[in-house]
Amino acid sequence: MNFHSIIRCQSGLPRVLFSILGVMVWGEGAAGAEDAVAIGSRRELFVDRLLVGELKNTALKLHEPQLMPPVTQPRPNGHYATVLRAPDKFQFYYRGDKDPKVTWKNQGIEAYHDGEVTLYAESADGIHWTLPKLGLHEHPAFPEGNIVLMNEFMVNHNFTPFIDTRPGVPAAEKYKALGGLAYQPQQQAVREKRGPGGLKAYVSPDGIHWKKLRDEPVIPEEWGKYFDSQNYAFWSEAEQCYVCYFRRFIGGLRGIARTTSKDFIHWTPYVEMKANLPGEHLYTACTQPYFRAPHLYLALPTRFMEKRGAATDVLFMSTRGGEVYDRLFTQSLIRPGLSKEGWANRANYAAIGIHQTGDTELSLFLTNGRRYTLRLDGFVSVNAPLEGGEFITRPLTFDGNELTINYATSAAGQMQVEIQDAQGRPVPGFALEECDPIYGDHISRVVTWKKESDVSKLKGTVIKLRFVMSDADLFALKFE
């Protein structure tokens, strides 16, 4: 199988498969062009082992997001939240209850789901939020008037929108959303009264005024069992189709399934994703294209600890499509934390939405108004200790004129880069000793050899990159 095989929506084409723990097996022998990873001018992060060849006294490191002060009041809250980035604002969608005392346990699912609404907030910077009075739906429990959807039975439980980036999408359907549940066996009387469950599709020109795309569910209820999570879809430029990751029981465990569509109405038969560790419940998929490298889908699923008071962790995984997540790390990305609130029932969920909120930072949004930050591209790095180490990529081809890197060193640390041919020999003019030493902390730094940066003569040829590092982190690389 060619390692750079393209994953497409149609079945039967080659797929790149990663193991759950991110381990790959390769044959012996020098790499030719057919074995090289064709990265073009894409930005590549080290969230999987696509580019990882040799690690010599270096290791892949998962970085810990930093908890920031809570977003300002009025604070958007609620489970299954979604944060979108429109050209002129951030948009926050979250669930509200007309009467929080009405639960499915004490009043039944019909009263409970009738009492749910979808609420909306806006922000210019992702930190300071307002609740606009929209005047679309009125209810005394929400005097701010920020309801965008009401009286849509079961849909408001997990209404999850996205901005459709498909070229040529009609303006009236620029925003799309899925929402809905499947009935449990004991709820058939309600089903007969209210109609079948499943995921229903909605469209909007602005993310505020929504209408149902059609009355029937676009994803049938028997696929979900029970869809009671956040089921997110998006347009994939890499795969040229809509992709949806949704909740499904797999082998008695809460897990994740995937389906694709060309028109957002007709969906391919689902596949069950290989993601769970033995005995592990993954309550949400939270899988989305990374905005700086949209061919990479980053996932922030919830690990559900049913026997520990339903406490939850936020994990980190990635995928490039197909049926398998790459799980380089099994530890949590975000723990419940010091407060009792974080250890409450299902209290630690990540919202859909990883967004830039500063010149060098991205933000993750969680329940209860929490916000965490990382540097841009800063989920995983190739890390070297002070005594030094090396990282050599798999054979690759590129399209660009300069090599840029996202990196950080200590005051004492540094790195140098060598370009090698497919057999691991230094390319004249790009040897290690010719690389100008790199130290500091930059989101995008051009690598130079004897003050020269032009690598265009190597475009299309098979190369390897050798990084010699000390007390340093390499987060991403890109040929500009």
TrEMBL record:
- SUPFAM superfamilies registered for this protein in UniProt: Arabinanase/levansucrase/invertase
- Give the superkingdom in one word: Bacteria
Protein name (database record): Glycosyl hydrolase family 32 N-terminal domain-containing protein
Q: Which organism is it from?
A: Prosthecobacter vanneervenii
